[in-house]
Amino acid sequence: MMICIGRSHNSSYELFKVGAKVSPGLKIFAEQGDTNLLDQESQGEGGVFDEFNAPPITEGTGQSEAEFFIDGNHSLVSLVARVVPSPDWFIGVESFNLCVEGLWLESVILEASSDNKFI
């Protein structure tokens, strides 16, 4: 089962940071799929604007989506999804800015650029 959770926030909050030790809540989420401590860690955190959970994907393939609120002061989004089966792996997006130079992004294109040998 794949579980995805996230936060919209400002630059004072970090759900995780690449290369740094994760919080106890994220550790439990990655190992067990339990979000309770992770949710508690962000409650009362001034940098968090909204918390969201996408419905779990219970089969090997599927899709899930979630809606969340952002504003001009909280335009960053971070999310993590637990990798199952694994001992404690997760994939994530760290502080992706949805507002660049005062303009909201309409869409984001992610490309492997395999034609240019960038993979």
TrEMBL record:
GO biological process: cell adhesion
Regions annotated as coiled coil: none
InterPro entries reported in the protein's UniProt record: Spondin/Thrombospondin_T1, Spondin_N, Spondin_N_sf
Top-rank taxon, per record: Eukaryota
One protein family per Pfam: Spond_N
Domain Spondin: 1-119
Gene Ontology CC: extracellular matrix
NCBIfam families, sorted: NF038123_dom (NF038123)
Protein name: Spondin domain-containing protein
Native organism: Hyalella azteca
